[in-house]
Design goal:
Helix content is about 25%, strand content about 25%. The protein is of the alpha/beta class and about 325 residues long. Bound molecules: guanosine-5'-triphosphate, magnesium ion and zinc ion (ZN).
Amino acid sequence: MAAGRGTASPEALERGRVVANHGRQVVVEDAAGRRIPCRLHGRKLAAVCGDEARWAYAHAGDDHGTVYALEPRRRTLERLTSGGHAEPIVANLTQLVVVVAPLPAPDWSIVDRYLAGAAWCGVAALIACNKAELGLPAVLATELDAYAAIGVATVHCSTRGAPGIEALATRLAGAVSVLVGQSGTGKSSLLNALAPEARAVTQEISAATDEGRHTTTHAVLHRLASGGDLIDSPGVRDYAPPLPAPRAVASGFVEIGQRAAGCRFQDCLHLSEPGCAVRSALAAGEIRPRRYDSYRRVVELAREFRERYPERRPR
Ligand SMILES: Nc1nc2c(ncn2[C@@H]2O[C@H](COP(=O)(O)OP(=O)(O)OP(=O)(O)O)[C@@H](O)[C@H]2O)c(=O)[nH]1
Ligand SMILES: [Mg+2]
Ligand SMILES: [Zn+2]
């Protein structure tokens, strides 16, 4: 089937999935697994990795095509831009995998914000601790145990030695997952280990700063032989998801959201209100101060957002 540029009607278009995104140029995978470079039709169309696309070859026999439309997105991972807008990163996900490692040293507030963002958009989340063959510093092991204790799944993996990638592969089977996290944690290395044909570029972290070099610049999706689809994404220096109303922030912090029902006031923000079950649990050592601090900072962000953009409705 081929539809010319001006003649493409929705029924005549093929279905495919955006598996890489380079601005106005994308790569679409068709039902047979072929990957076709496509341009986006019109200025308004903006695709992200994971989008379901309606596309057509420009002319019969062409090896490139045009994307004319995108299907409505489900479960989109978004980030809050400095201008206060929600920018989609990847679409139609089922699982977010936050990758941490002994080096670069984890920034746990980034991890907490990813977990909150996943909860708010209805995506399951998992923490993968890569480079585990190096051995885990006690502080890292303690944090991972604490996440496990509040019900966040954690898996240890390595692309260089034991424990390997099997436990991660098991978690990815049957899911559409995205690898996110700080630069240099080994996201692209994990993709290459799981899907060697991906041949994603990887790079040593900087010896001067012990930080990654922001090697990956675009999200890319690969099918795994072990099952599931995996999206590699660029490493971040910081991350904030689009913010809900301050009262809804607790739903992104599982151990805080669970206790909110015990608060005296229904609209308790768990900051300094009397009769607050969350503050009681914090005082009793049942909630970790570091996690509470992450929560408090996100509530502050959500309040600032409301003051700054009163016309924008929180989702
Ligand atoms: N020791 C050890 N090093 C690893 C492991 N996995 C990846 N690395 C190394 O970590 C460095 C960074 O790996 P990348 O895969 O480029 O990291 P990334 O997370 O994709 O980085 P960005 O694309 O910048 O976000 C490279 O030198 C990898 O060889 C591992 O399991 N153990
Ligand atoms: Mg990378
Ligand atoms: Zn409270």
